[in-house]
Design brief:
The chain has helices at residues 2-7, 25-36, 48-51, 98-107, 116-124, 129-136, 146-158, 166-171, 180-191, 230-233, 265-277, 283-294, and strands at 208-210, 241-243. The chain is mainly alpha-helical and 320 residues long. The protein has a two-stranded antiparallel ribbon. The longest helix is centred in the middle third of the chain and has 13 residues, at 146-158. The radius of gyration is 20 Å and the shape is globular.
Length: 320
């Protein structure tokens, strides 16, 4: 327990503060409405929740998400739950925080495929949003802006935390919170070196690492065309480097890896041990580590689906 307390921190019971934003109830409610509103997509059919479903552990349980006009994305959708604790957003870290991340999928032609300008025209064409923005941003002369959309979504996403997992209780001193098998798995997780990358409050999400440190996995799991963070930095050392994903709620979020090619958590553990650590774990060791990973499932956020402001005859129409 003492060793674990030096490597990890429990999820807090209250959402953290989003930098430079005061999270008022009105701002959270606006962010929730925008998060669930499919009219922020060109087709009026895709919302943030489409790919990051709160009721499914913050993911869509697809290898890659399906976007505008049934286009497939190139990477597995990471969980939105506890994402506020990550050092950056997206697999390649191209967004510094949730505010920056929120605007990306909206205008991505493969995802929601609506320009920021059109998104604002859309929101201004829905009369019911005006009072919601005015309540959320009372000091703004013209509150319906893409910057305020990003702030509101980010503040709502920051509330999507999952405290009080068995592991959190263990970190707070409850020695009975983990089973004997989970404690053995935690011991292996630390001793085998998993915790060298998967540590901190999110048991990951705090650093970047190459995929295939010791042995590169097959092309199905690590396709040669996706060079990860290199696409952001253009630095040779960042080829096949990705943000270390959080392992919080990992049992709820298959399929695994940035390619979404592993549906079995035990398989994912085995692949990581071989490729990152050069270790060929026994079935018993993999089972124990997997049992420990199950202790990372926390209390899921209870979110009431919002009643969204209705469109009118003058609201911009969808492009199918």
């Amino acid at each position: 327990m003492k060793e674990a307390q030096g490597l990890f921190q429990p999820i807090p019971n209250k959402p953290p503060v989003v930098k430079d934003v005061v999270a008022t109830p009105a701002l959270v409610e606006l962010g929730k409405a925008l998060y669930f509103d499919p009219r922020l997509s060109e087709s009026h059919n895709i919302s943030c929740n489409t790919c990051h479903q709160i009721g499914l552990g913050g993911v869509d349980m697809l290898p890659v998400s399906i976007g505008h006009k049934s286009q497939k994305g190139t990477r597995n959708a990471p969980t939105v739950l506890n994402s506020v604790f990550n050092t950056a957003q997206f697999w390649d870290g191209r967004a510094a925080d949730l505010k920056e991340q929120a605007g990306g999928p909206i205008q991505n032609p493969v995802e929601m495929a609506i320009t920021h300008q059109h998104a604002i025209e859309m929101l201004r064409g829905i009369p019911g949003y005006k009072p919601l923005f005015e309540a959320a941003f009372p000091g703004d002369k013209d509150p319906v802006t893409i910057q305020n959309v990003e702030k509101a979504i980010a503040v709502f996403e920051a509330t999507l935390i999952t405290p009080n997992a068995p592991f959190d209780k263990f970190l707070r001193g409850d020695g009975n919170a983990l089973t004997a098998e989970q404690k053995a798995g935690l011991r292996l997780f630390i001793d085998q070196g998993c915790a060298s990358c998967h540590n901190g409050i999110n048991v990951g999400g705090g650093m970047y690492a190459p995929f295939g440190v010791v042995e590169k996995p097959g092309a199905d799991i690590l396709p040669p065309t996706d060079k990860g963070r290199f696409q952001v930095t253009k630095t040779a050392d960042d080829e096949y480097v990705f943000k270390v994903p959080t392992l919080r709620n990992i049992e709820l979020t298959p399929p695994y890896f940035h390619t979404g090619k592993a549906w079995d958590l035990k398989q994912a553990v085995g692949v990581m041990a071989t490729s990152q650590l050069g270790e060929h774990l026994s079935d018993d060791q993999i089972s124990k580590i997997t049992a420990f990973l199950h202790s990372l499932t926390g209390e899921q956020p209870m979110v009431t689906y919002p009643i969204l402001p209705p469109s009118t005859a003058t609201t911009p129409q969808p492009e199918m």
